[in-house]
Amino acid sequence: MRPSGRAFNELRAVSFETGFTKHAEGSCLVRFGDTHVLCTASWDETTPPWLRGAGRGWVTAEYGMLPRSTNERMRREAKNGQSGRTQEIQRLIGRSLRAVVDLKALGERQILIDCDVIQADGGTRTASITGAWVALNQACAWAVEQGIIKSSPVRDRVAAISCGLVSGAPALDLDYDEDSTAQADANFVITGNGGLVEIQATAEGDPFTDEQFQALLGLAKDGCATLSAQQAELFS
Predict the structure, then answer these.
(1) Model-level pTM greater than 0.90?
(2) Rounded-to-integer distance, Cα 124 and Cα 181, Å
């Protein structure tokens, strides 16, 4: 059994609370068990300087963890500069969302995503991606309602999930206790149509086999399909 008592192919309890903040064009509080992330999407009628005149837009993301999102207080990165981990995660979020957005249809505009981890218990990057898509889609629906764009540039859903080898067995959606002791861990970003956007996989000790990787991939596909269905229900 896993420490949480879940089956090896079982997600944590996942929920999405849309429209969580008053001012953002799109917002979502996403919960993966005890990992809670506030995701907002802000519409911007400008593009980065390097994209001006290119006839297409951009989606970018920022990510951060609040000081008491973990067991011990962390210092705010605003005082110390962003860590390499933070920079890597926010780039991952941006890439994941751009994979399902028609940037030309967006026009010379950008959508700014903010993912703020309120409480962390493993899988903060995967929860951020999954919740950020909800906020992004909400912001694009807002822009259509306002007559800013004719139709949403969002072409598909995208979700992400972690998997790993826990006591030698493939397991889905690792919490912190599992992630900190797993023999291998991986993050998968998958579209609603089943397309692979990104895979991050690392052995923490002995190398894992191709069979083990295929088992993790199978769990991730099923898990992301479940998350994608939950995303779709929010906008049905």
Answers:
(1) yes
(2) 17
